[in-house]
Each structure stands twice: as structure tokens, then as C-alpha cells.
Amino acid sequence: MLDGCVPWPGELAERYRAEGYWSGRPLDVLLSEGARQHPSRTALVDADGSRWTYAELDEWASRLAAGLAETGLRPGERVVVQLPNVPEFVALFFGFLRAGVLPVLALPAHRESEIVPLCELSEAAAYVIADSDGAGYDYRELARTVGEAVPSVRHVFVVGEPAEFRPLPSASPGPPVSVDPSDVALFLLSGGTTGTPKLIPRTHQDYLYNARASAAVSGFSADTRYLVALPAAHNFALASPGLLGAVAAGGTVVLAPDPSADTAFELIERERVTVTAVVPPVALLWMDAAGFMDEDLSSLRLLQVGGAKLSAEPASRVRSALGCDLQQVFGMAEGLLNFTRLDDPDELKITTQGRPLCPADEVLVVNPEGDPVAPGESGELLTRGPYTLRGYFRAEQHNARSFTPDGFYRSGDVVRVLPSGHLVVEGRVKDQINRGGEKIPAEELENHLLAHPAVHDAAVVGMPDEVMGERTCAFLVVRGEAPTLREVTAFLRERGVAAYKLPDRLEVLDGFPLTKVGKVSKVALAQRIAG
């Protein structure tokens, strides 16, 4: 196990192997087996209609793996990957697995305030970007900042015009790197409650189970045509079941550059897409758009919705608006996944967020003192299992707070469990805003706001929103003249804050309401903005 990662205890590891959850195979078998079993079947389709068979994608991944090795990247080194939904992401992901190099998957929306700390924490040896986002943002400028700030970054690889950097490396395939399935395969990012990035190590064996079991519970098969509408680096779109689940089933992956109805509906019609996954705001927009757009969506059989809770009212409209079944998915990059089942009654599909994927998933619901609540009562969700991490990477102090002594992960989600085992998500314990599936740490944004010369104090809370679930309101106590929302957002952009973290609303107060122990009462602030 890589230094800085927390392994599963021996007795649990033995149990997970004995019960068949861990197969003892590397994650790359998803593609290599597909290339051997059905080489001529279409594996990947780009938005422009370009296509790769399983054999072609397999060859591409092997050439990239050899190219990475020729640049001097060694097994176990980390590479921060920040790519949109392009075919290079898929080929490169498998190339990293074959080279033994560990991808750290960042999102396209991340900017300097996320990427620089991420490269520092991971001690990244390389950084992979696209040349631009297609809307005017040049990632090469960000790469220059990274190069100046993070000495460990030896290479920058660019999909597109590389400028002074390097294109993706490619070489004749050599012998494969030997991989221990219990070793880390990749790092996902946690949407935590502080500004410090937290890396989630996912091993070959746990992520292989994650993808295969998710594909099975979602009914994926060789006929599946999966549209990647969300960023491919997101755990939901990557392996829950995502593109890896589609590959595991021998299906076809279709890449969408964005999740807009215009883009997605055209691809659904053209490629006869059967399943896709979105966050609730996208689902709402699609349902509204379906009433006046002309594309044929009849191939779509399943819409998976996760990342945030889909309320019962819009959930009840999915079938009539889009003509497909709904599967609610509640999970976390840290591990535990919950799915409504395809044969569940409609009532459960509409009103719950599913039940655990795996028989070995252990779920506890506890009160603030850590004691189990009575059946059916609400409390914080704690969990452990064969695909739930045992600790964040190089985060000893945070791990002490986030895990119980016996290894249960404190999710921060408030849930109640029905007699059927289905979970109903009721909110968050942690100080975090869920803006349409994007997790915004309040403390991180507050720290940026406090750097503004006119801001004396700052408190960030979520405000209810029918479309996004929550939007962000920044309460400020100021010095002198109060800045406008436009001025504040311009200041935050200059600090490299990602666009989705910018406040939607600004409220200036003379002082903050306080709790009895003298802390800022965010409950009172949230009640104020909700009213």
C-alpha cells in the first residue's frame, strides 16, 4: 500500500476476498478483457462521431502507457488530470493503470485555488490538461502557475495545442507493469467542508467491484449505450456505474461535452443512448426542455439521478416527461453507493435515494453523541465496507475526526432508514453547500472572502432553491463601504476560485447572530435567508 494510505484491516480484507467482493485482479481488466472477448465492438464514441472499437481503445491505452514510461514517470507517482469529456480521458485513464502511474482526477471547473494545493498534496510529477475549455479559458495559463508553484511537477501534457508544453506521449507498447490489486489505482477528490483538498485513494480491487456491481444493479449489458453527460472525472460518471460500468458490461460509451439538453438530446437520438446519469438541476432542465424539443428520445430507458437529493415532485415527472425509468443514486466518492432497484415500486423510486449496493455494506445511523438512533429516526450516516475508504491520503488529523476507531466513515449525511432498507436523505451535518451536486465548503469560501480588504467577517450558508437544491449566500460584516456582489465575485475570480463556488447572493449585516457559546449562528442566518 502506498505510503500515506490507510489499508483495510487484515481480517476484513480476508473476508472481502473470501466472499468474492475482491477478485484479486487489476482494474485494467475491464478494457483488456473487452478487447479480447469482443475486439470489434464499439467501445467509445466522441461527440463529433469518431469511434473506437475495444481493440482500438486497448491499443491506444497501451501506447499511452508506454509513452508515459518513456517520459520517466514511474509506477506509484501521481499525475493530476484535468480534462473535459474527450476520448483522450478514457484512453489515458487505462494508460495510467497499465503504467502503474496514479491519476489524481480533478474536475474541469477547478482553478488555481484547487489545483495548486492538489498538486502540492499529491506531490504530482505531472499535470494533464486540455488547451482550453472551448469557452475562452486557457488551461495552459493555469499550468504555468502550477509550474512556478509546485516544484515536483516535471511535465505538463496537453490535449490540443501544447504551446511550450508537451503533447500526450505515445510509444510502442512494452511489457505490462505488474500491479498488486490491493494497491491504489487512482485518487478521487472529496467535496469536503474545508479548503484543504482531500484525496480519496481507490484501490484496483475495491474500484473494480464498485464498477462491476454498480453495472449489474443498473442492468447494464452489451446493449447498453451510456452517455457521459457529467464530467467523466466525477465518481458518478466514472464508475457508479458510469463509463467503467459500461466497459465492464461490454457496452458503448458516448461522450457529451456538456450536459445541456441541446447537446445531450442530439447525442441520445444519434447514438440511440439507453442510459445516462445527471444531477437534479440537469434532470429538471431536461424535463422542461423535452416538451418543446423535437429529438427522438425513445431509446432512453433509464435516467440515473444523483449527486444531490432529487425531490419527490420532480422525481414523479421523469417517466412522463422523458419516457424512461428513474433510478435514484445516493453515494460518495469515499465509497458507499445506494441505488433504487429497477424492480422497486414507483413509490420507492420517487421518495427514496436507494439502498446499499453491497450485502457487506455496513450502515449505522447515529445521534450527535454517536449512539444508534431508533429504527426510522434521523441521524448521521456512518458506513464501512469493501469499497469504502479507511482513510484519506496523508491526512492523519482529518482521519481521526472522519472515522470511528473501528473504521466507520462519518459521512456527514443525515438520513433515515425505511424498513425496506432504503435511505431517505434529509440533509448534511457538515458545513457544506450542495449546489446542484457541486459541494462547496463554506469555510473555504469564507477564507477567500475574508481576504477582501473591505470584509471584516464572513459567513456562508446555503439557501433553498427549487432548481439547484441550494444556492450560496455570503453574509458579510464590512469595513467602510460595502462591496457589491459583482465586485466580490470579480475579487474571488482573481484569487482563482472556481465559478461554481462563487456566491449567488450577498447580504451585508452590522453583526452576526451568535449562539449561547458565542459562535456565529448559521442556523439563524439560514433561517433569515430562507424567509
Secondary-structure blueprint:
Layout: H1 10-18, H2 29-37, E1 42-45, E2 51-53, H3 54-70, E3 78-82, H4 87-99, E4 102-105, H5 112-122, E5 126-130, H6 139-149, E6 155-159, E7 166-167, E8 184-189, E9 199-203, H7 204-217, E10 225-228, H8 235-239, H9 242-248, E11 252-255, H10 261-271, E12 275-278, H11 280-290, E13 302-305, H12 312-315, H13 318-322, E14 325-331, E15 337-339, H14 346-351, E16 355-356, E17 362-366, E18 379-384, H15 396-402, E19 409-417, E20 423-428, E21 432-435, E22 438-441, H16 442-450, E23 455-465, E24 469-478, H17 485-494, E25 505-508, H18 522-530
Domain AMP-dependent synthetase/ligase: 33-393
Pfam families: AMP-binding (PF00501), AMP-binding_C (PF13193)
Keywords: Ligase
Overall structural class, as computed from helix and strand content, comes to: alpha/beta
Radius of gyration: 23 Å
Q: What is the CATH topology of the domain at 440-529? A: GMP Synthetase, Chain A, domain 3
Runs in which pLDDT lies below 50 for 5 or more consecutive residues are none
CATH homolog superfamily of the domain at 440-529: ANL, C-terminal domain
CATH architecture of the domain at 440-529: 2-Layer Sandwich
Helix content: 25-40%
Biggest sheet architecture:
9 strands, mixed
Total beta strands: 25
Top CATH class of the domain at 440-529: Alpha Beta
Mean pLDDT: 94
Biggest sheet strand line-up: 2-1-11-10-12-13-14-15-16
How large is the share of residues in beta strands?
15-25%
The total count of helices amounts to: 18
Specify the overall morphology: globular
Termini separation: 51 Å
EC number: 6.2.1.71
Organism: Amycolatopsis thermophila
InterPro entries: AMP-bd_C, AMP-bd_C_sf, AMP-binding_CS, AMP-dep_synth/lig_dom, ATP-dep_AMP-bd_enzyme
Keywords: Ligase
